[in-house]
User: Fold this.
Amino acid sequence: VRVDPSALGNMIGQKERELQEMSELRVRALEKAIQDREGTLEEAKGQFLRLRDDFQYNLRLLEERDAELARYDALFANMKQVLVDRDGEVSELRALIDELEGRVRTEQARCSELETYCADRVSEERMRTEAVKRAR
Assistant:
């Protein structure tokens, strides 16, 4: 079989054009895939940045809360110590009150004894005075 050189040239030219078109299609498909991946990458970067910002914001909130809790813990410990100190003072004051009430009772008893003694003495002196008056 003999092939005409011009037909062979046409067939080769045709195949070269087909190969060129296929290469161009392949390049366009690859460029499209690259664009899609770049878009996906940009979207992922955006999500990452938003997540990072949210994380940093939440971390700052937690740090502020932790600092506030530490202040409250210190305040609570201080208040607890104040209450312990006041309880001690109250106990001391109650002991002092008990002691002073005991002294008051002792003094009241002594005053009562003195009143009785004085009343007895006044009575004795009246009786002496009356006896002296009668004896005159």
Observations:
- The two ends are 193 Å apart (CA to CA).
- The mean pLDDT is 96.
- The chain has one helix and no strands.
- The CA atoms of residues 2 and 8 lie 10 Å apart.
